[in-house]
Amino acid sequence: xxxxxxxxxxxxxxxxxxxxxxxxxxxxxxxxxxxxxxxxxxxxxxxxxxxxxxxxxxxxxxxxxxxxxxxxxxxxxxxxxxxxxxxxxxxxxx
Length: 94
Hints:
Blueprint: E1 6-15, H1 20-32, E2 38-41, E3 46-51, H2 52-69, E4 72-80
Antiparallel strand pairs: 1-3, 1-4, 2-3
């Protein structure tokens, strides 16, 4: 039985290799293959929103697969609830 708790993830990937941009793009595309998760990407990081269990399942699978094949660093922030911009207090949105 899957949890109904929503979660927000901010993830950055720093491949320790040449052609790092291709590696980052490939990882983002893998995350986007999970239709149950909402992915928003900008120039600094990628945000992932969805069910906590679905989010953690994706992370466990995709990070392990990536790290088995590549050398790099992941930086993560995980929060309970949906921290999408439309859910923030109006005073924080510029």
